[in-house]
Amino acid sequence: MKPWAKRRMEEERYTQHDMERGRLLFAGRVDFIMGAVSLGTLPGADRPEVAFAGRSNVGKSSLVNALTGRKTLARTSNTPGRTQELNYFEMGAEMNTPAYLVDLPGYGYAKIERKKVNAWTRLVKDYLRGRPNLRRVMLLIDSRHGLKENDREIMHMLDEAAVNYQIVLTKLDKLKVADRDKILKKTQEDAKKFIACHPIIMATSSEKGWGLEDLRAEIGQLTAF
Ligand SMILES: Nc1nc2c(ncn2[C@@H]2O[C@H](COP(=O)(O)OP(=O)(O)OP(=O)(O)O)[C@@H](O)[C@H]2O)c(=O)[nH]1
Questions:
Q1: Measured between alpha carbons, how far is 10 from 64 in angstroms, rounded to an integer?
Q2: For the chain, how many helices (H) and strands (E)?
Q3: Gap from CA of 97 to ligand 1 centroid (Å)
Q4: Which Pfam families match (predicted)?
């Protein structure tokens, strides 16, 4: 996308207030609250939350770290599929409208046995159905691969649970310039087939810092009361 076109979209999509709130949310303290293995142990639903989901190795930890400008907040790894908990982070503790960021366990790692996949599905399904303060799930998709079968399964699950979700492409820097627009358009077309999927696809690179300002603003807007 041409920089001017991108700039215009940003201006139309977010108010100054959203951008400012997004910036402040991620600029202050972002504290790890807990890793929940069951719904019974989740923190109270007293503030809005946004969850991050995606296949193992999609770049979720890198993105969360890049958003907060920290290197060690969410664990990045070369051993996909290790985290099997709902990891809660509190953002904007010093603001009067704080929010939670929830890092959902990665899915689709081939070496995980069926039993664990079932446990993941159960935990995440229960979470998605029963969390009234969940404003949106950011569904991360590796821009080199596009939507895979298990991404589509999750999208159907989100559709059924009537959870608002939005696709965030990751690792855009790994694509050739000409391929970036192609994957964006293709994903946009795919997204139309899913009822609860947000029509706007966000594109990011944690490595280069691309799309982070937009994503912060989006989350700022979503978690404003
Ligand atoms: N070039 C490039 N590499 C990236 C980017 N984001 C992540 N990576 C790399 O992709 C690999 C996986 O990244 P992680 O952030 O650990 O992925 P994850 O989704 O948290 O993985 P799990 O812990 O399995 O859930 C790492 O080697 C990262 O360095 C990006 O924007 N650009």
A1: 21
A2: 7, 7
A3: 30
A4: MMR_HSR1 (PF01926)
Whole-number Å distance, alpha carbon 77 to ligand 1 midpoint, is 7
Q: Which helix (H) or strand (E) holds 181?
A: helix 177-191
CA distance 149 to 10: 31
pLDDT tens track for 134-152: 999 999 999 999 999 999 9
Q: Is the dihedral of CA 86, 87, 91, 96 positive or negative?
A: positive
How far apart are the C-alpha atoms of 103 and 191, rounded to whole Å?
22
The structure's pTM equals: 0.90
Q: In CATH, which of 3.40.50.720, 3.40.50.300, 3.40.50.1000, 3.10.180.10 is domain 3-222?
A: 3.40.50.300
207 close to ligand 1 (CB < 6 Angstrom): yes
- Owner of token pair 């192609």: 182
Cα 180 to averaged position of ligand 1 atoms, centre (Å)? 18
Instruction: Report CA Rg, the chain.
Output: 16
Mutation test residue for ligand 1: of 57, 169, 174, the one with most atoms within 8 Å of CB: 57
Residue 57 Cβ contacting ligand 1 at under 6 Å? yes
Rounded to a whole number of angstroms, the distance between the first and last alpha carbons of the chain is: 32
pLDDT digits (tens, 9 = 90+) for 53-94: 999 899 998 999 999 887 666 554 444 444 578 989 999 988
